[in-house]
Amino acid sequence: MTTPFPPTFLWGGATAANQIEGAYDQDGKGLSVQDVLPRGIFGPRTDAPTPDNLKLQAIDFYHRYEDDLELLAAMGLRTFRFSVAWSRIFPHGDDAEPNEAGLAFYDRVVDTCLRLGMEPLVTISHYETPLALADKHDGWRSREMVDLYVRYARTLVERYRGRVKYWLTFNEINSLFHAPFMSAGIATPKDELTEADLYQAAHHELVASALATQVIHEVDPDAQVGCMVLAMPVYPLTPAPDDVVAAMHADHRNLFYGDVHVRGRYPGYVLRDLRERGIELDITDADREALTHTVDFVSFSYYMSICETAAPVEAGEGNIMGGVPNPHLPASEWGWQIDPQGLRVVLNQFWDRWQKPLFIVENGLGARDELVEVDGRLTVVDDYRIAYLRDHLVQVAEAVADGVEVMGYTPWGCIDLVSASTAQMSKRYGFVHVDRDDDGTGTLTRRTKASYDWYRQVIATDGASLQDG
């Protein structure tokens, strides 16, 4: 059987520190915004960590990383995406010296990945701004965050130079407008923030991302740096020109971040929007120079597409980035509409627009899994997850055949983790089941699911097995 996937394709899996590590208060780690978000993205923050926050223990990857990585490597993963917890390196974000215990932990994770044949794919900031910086500076609303982040990035690349080849600067940087506390550590309540506040915070992150890209290229010229955006194709709800224009504007709100990362400047449509809204950002000449340090590749998450219309309608429940439901698509239990062809659409759109290698670093189905006994062992027969991933990978293959340069595919939550959107364990994504429930009980025992063997075969055949149906 033939396959369009090249032998260099980086088949992998993706995670985030705050959703797997646990050990939130061990070995000198400081608090992050996640430690006071027990209800997920849109839930209210608490004054201090509370016992009902599953992320405080998560799946205890901090103590079980070696066994977990061996289990993932046995599936054939060629890359493992994880994030570094900023507050594990700088507990308050602005400490005079980094925390050696934190750096040493990621030494062990990186070295284990390499020993097992998995390239580390490291996200520098994945939704876990140090809580001290959120409270002291109001997160990324403050320009002071730029230098603190760049120093943090430099600390990482100097420590792991030559061992980490692929870096991502910010996870889903375009989520800032929708979840400002989680995404950007902005402590001011969302309903008190103006659009000017949010645009200025986004600008600070874009400058910091560009400066970190410059630093990484200087410290380790062999390393590659990517931005990471939440990809979501936008369809007009009807062929009416007003709906088409509404879809174009919605698309621009997402494409803006990639345009800056790849082109090194603000696009005209954003400048017009700012003018017409009367927003004047604090953009210095040094900022404009910084933005010229562009990324080597574009990485993105893909979970859903949305529709837009000029008519007044209610947004679809579960579509966390807005939009209206598509009447032609099914939805997951959590209301996220399922659109495999949208992945081919967005791959072609990004490739045509930017001509940079693309990396799908999140994709997957959150679902409730049930343990059953098969041949004398407990497992999960997750045919629904296999179908979802197969349908999406078939569309990736179509995009590769279209001529799109795709570096790799790391489905989200390759081992069950705490959901970012709901802070639940029951919303599972993984190929590996972790025995933990929403009430915090469970043994944390790991068990492979049916999808584990399926994905192992996909990797072993470089996608040729997808043709088997």
Q: Explain this structure to me?
A:
Helix content is 38%, strand content 14%. It has a single domain, classed as TIM Barrel, CATH 3.20.20.80. It contains 14 helices and 14 strands. The longest helix has 25 residues. A hairpin with a 2-residue loop joins β10 and β11. The strands form 4 sheets. The chain has an 8-stranded parallel beta barrel with strand order 1-2-3-4-5-7-9-12, surrounded by 5 helices. α2 runs parallel beside α4, α6 runs parallel beside α8 and α12 packs parallel to α13. The protein has 469 residues and is α/β, with parallel strands linked by helices. It is globular. The two termini are 13 Å apart.
CATH superfamily annotation:
Glycosidases
CATH class category name: Alpha Beta
Strand content: 5-15%
Give the integer mean of the pLDDT values.
Answer: 96
What's the gyration radius in Å? 21 Å
| Low-pLDDT segments, ≥5 res | none
Strand line-up of the largest beta sheet: 1-2-3-4-5-7-9-12
What name does CATH use for the topology? TIM Barrel
Outline, from the CA principal axes?
globular
Total beta-strand segments:
14
How many structural units, i.e. domains?
1
By CATH, the architecture is named Alpha-Beta Barrel
N-to-C SSE string, H for helix and E for strand: EHHEHHEHHEHHEEHHHEEHEEEHEEEH
Q: By helix and strand content, what is the structural category?
A: alpha/beta
Count of helical segments?
Answer: 14
Please bin the fraction of helical residues. 25-40%
Major β-sheet profile: 8 strands, parallel, barrel
Q: What is the end-to-end distance?
A: 13 Å
InterPro entries: GH, GH_1_N_CS, Glyco_hydro_1, Glyco_hydro_1_AS
Pfam families: Glyco_hydro_1
EC number: 3.2.1.86
Protein name: 6-phospho-beta-glucosidase
